[in-house]
Write a structure and sequence with these properties.
Two copies of one chain form a homodimer.
Chain A lengths: L4 E7 L3 H12 L1 H8 L2 E8 L16 E2 L2 H5 L6 E4 L5 H12 L3 E4 L2 H17 L4 E2 L11 H7 L5 E7 L2 H13 L3 H10 L8 H4 L2 H15 L1 E2 L6 E2 L7 H9 L2 E12 L2 E12 L11 E8 L3 E8 L3 H20 L12 E2 L9 E11 L4 H11 L4 E8 L4 E8 L2 E2 H13 L3 E10 L2
Parallel strand pairs in A: 1-2, 1-4, 2-3, 4-5, 5-6, 8-14, 9-11, 11-19
Antiparallel strand pairs in A: 7-10, 7-12, 10-11, 12-13, 15-17, 15-18, 15-19, 16-17
Helix pairs in contact in A: 1-12, 4-5, 5-10, 7-8, 13-14
Chain lengths: ~425, ~425
């Protein structure tokens, strides 16, 4: 017999949980009509029962015991929006073992333990939905799992961290230095007090792990991903990039080649007419390239209470439909395989390099020779006088492996005429 | 007991059907792994058994009888890619009544008879999947049905016809006149020998009907949509638009307001920095604005054999999963309601107007007065001398209802100093 009321329990009621709850209230009637069953919030576990909340919540719904949600036999779906890894992992495992469907926005958790948790879900003939873990409300997980499922995905590339994109946009549009832009992002709530998870690239790397796993049906370890953040990007580099026709963006890139998977997150120069160059401030955009569909792009707000709540609610609706239709064993991500990963040393890029050299004859020839010896050819060069004694040189190389580039750089660093290497960034056309 | 082999039959094997078949062959192993069952093509109905085909097909699979597909008891899924309305409608009804799931790329059919067919599917506890009917391989139907399902959709706006976008891009980038651009599009296979379905806006209107129906849960009749094609757009207007900071695109726009639905397809001036202005040639892009998610955009190739085949195959996979999981009654579009539609007369736009007037004192004052009497204020004006006797005037109005604008135009047409009204286009900011 089909259920007419689906009961859900929340773990956490912060920004994302609050957003989801607000949408369930605001659009509840439509949501129930579409699902064909009423969605009832039965219990909400919070850390502090007495905390003041933006959203009015019946005190009888609240509990400070996770157990009261994950073990309540009436609850069909557990919505994990408490964050953190260990406690959330334990709670989700319990929920699955108690026969519940799970919805989560937890990217750190899904990146690191997604496969294990999905295996538990499979064993229990339930499922975990995690659309909200990447790209806020932008549809990405479902498109990869369903709409593009007939494609062999060749590449994914995108801006999947709103905080760093806000910082880089402010630097490039308003001419702000990194530190100023970061402080403003913090003041506006786009960056946390400890911004390291965002600015060091880890947030993007967790999300890339999830997207690449789905795209390439691969089990990916976090240390398979090369991660470099934006904290070393200088306003000066952004201005030079603009002069050369590029914008600087923190890109997450995943590719499958015959040699294996290539997975990396780093600040990147991309041509100003590339659609990703136009993605500003807290917005996200992700290109997916499939062998059949070609390139498709998804764009929108990658974070925030209501956008992320939108994804959570879509997942709740799909879980509710699965329950209503008594679907068993709908987990399709649980037969992923470990894949060979191409070491960063062997990956090929173009490079942007900014350095200071003594303003003396023959310096440039020595530089060019050092690159030439490693078969690195140069595509663009800007040389400006810095002061009487010093010249600032900006180079863009053609394609070269990280290994060869680094060998050339080792030699360049030893040259007496080179005063400082100020910046090394990668370039994607 | 779960099925291990899902058998499908094709109706038609043209561009789209051929693309889908090619993908099923090329990525068949992966597709079967993801579905958890083998997908076997059992029968293909074609018009002409002897026609030479790009794709090699076992002659034993072919039949020239639709009946052999829709009535074969072994076939689980019927893929309708034969096009046309009446015969396809009858075949799909038969297939549903014989207990089959249906996948279709037929936008004309789904726009005009989608609700009736979905009602049959509901009665039969089957479903119709039609992702390929709009936007080729770009995920749109599933995002609206699932990913954004918790949102109240406020607006959809996009470029959903590749042929006209190719023509307008060639006009604006290469300075070609409409007729030249159209002839080239025909030579390249982007436009048909009889291009009227595309250039008159009907293809976009069918797709808007489908998208708006899903977005607003509404039953929409084709004559609820205001449709204007691109054949009257002159190169001269595109150049003036550029001078004023706009690009000209054929937009399909659907909005839900308190007064009702607003549905229209027409060539539109949009600001050059709007993301849709950057969508070139045969590409499509669609903005969706939801109350929770904000604005999201989907971008990619809106037509072509493999991109559209990608959507067909995704639908085959979802249908196969539904069969494997014995899902009954998964139709969620069958409880749509008729909605009030705001007549075009009452819709509000800004307008671009190009006209020729006698080069004599007071002409502009008369024009401005005619607009002022209808409370139409002017935002931008360009006046150029055409020859000794004639001035060309280009105006952009502020927001005004179609009704008031047309009344002003009626008066202006009667003025002796006005020689010709050369162009009227709408402007969206």
């Amino acid at each position: 017999m089909q259920k007419n009321v689906i009961k859900i329990g929340f773990l956490g009621l912060g920004t994302v949980g609050g957003g989801a709850l607000q949408i369930l209230r605001q659009n509840g009637e439509e949501i129930s009509r579409k699902v064909g069953a009423e969605i009832e919030v039965k219990r909400i576990a919070v850390r502090d029962l007495k905390k003041a909340r933006a959203l009015e919540v019946d005190a009888a719904l609240l509990t400070d015991q996770v157990e009261h949600v994950v073990s309540d036999p009436e609850i069909d779906i557990v919505v994990e929006v408490m964050g953190g890894v260990e406690q959330a992992r334990f709670a989700i495992e319990q929920a699955l073992e108690n026969g519940k469907f799970v919805v989560t926005a937890n990217k750190d958790l899904m990146a690191q333990y997604g496969q294990q948790l999905l295996a538990v879900a499979k064993k229990q003939k339930k499922n975990i939905f995690y659309e909200a873990s990447v790209g806020g409300g932008i549809p990405l997980i479902r498109p990869l799992k369903h709409c593009l499922a007939a494609n062999r995905i060749k590449k994914i590339m995108g801006i999947i961290n709103g905080t760093t994109n806000y910082i880089l946009t402010q630097m490039s549009k308003e001419g702000k230095e990194y530190e100023t832009a970061l402080a403003e992002a913090q003041a506006k709530g786009f960056a946390e007090a400890d911004p390291s998870n965002d600015v060091d690239g880890w947030d993007a790397a967790y999300k890339l792990n999830i997207l690449a796993g789905l795209s390439f049906s691969g089990i990916i370890a976090m240390n398979d991903i090369y991660v470099e953040g934006v904290s070393k990007v200088k306003l000066r580099d952004i201005l030079y990039a603009q002069e050369l026709g590029y914008a600087v963006k923190l890109l997450a890139i995943g590719e499958e080649s015959e040699a294996g998977l290539k997975l990396r997150v780093h600040p990147t120069l991309i041509p100003q007419n590339h659609p990703l160059a136009a993605v500003e401030n807290e917005f996200n955009a992700i290109f997916v390239e499939g062998d059949a569909v070609g390139e498709v792009m998804f764009y929108g707000r990658g974070a925030g209470s209501l956008p992320t709540g939108s994804a959570i609610c879509a997942d709740i609706m799909d879980a509710a439909r699965a329950i209503k239709n008594e679907i068993q064993n709908c987990v399709i991500e649980a037969n992923f395989a470990a894949k060979k990963v191409v070491p960063m040393e062997e990956q090929v890029s173009r490079f942007y390099l900014r350095l200071k050299a003594k303003n003396e004859p023959g310096v440039f020839a020595k530089l060019a020779t050092a690159f030439g010896n490693e078969r690195v050819s140069l595509d663009m060069i800007i040389q400006k006088r810095s002061d009487e004694q010093t010249a600032e040189i900006v180079l863009v190389t053609n394609d070269v492996s990280e290994g060869s580039f680094n060998q050339a750089m080792d030699k360049i660093r030893e040259m007496p005429s080179i005063q400082s290497i100020n910046s090394v960034l990668r370039v994607v056309e």
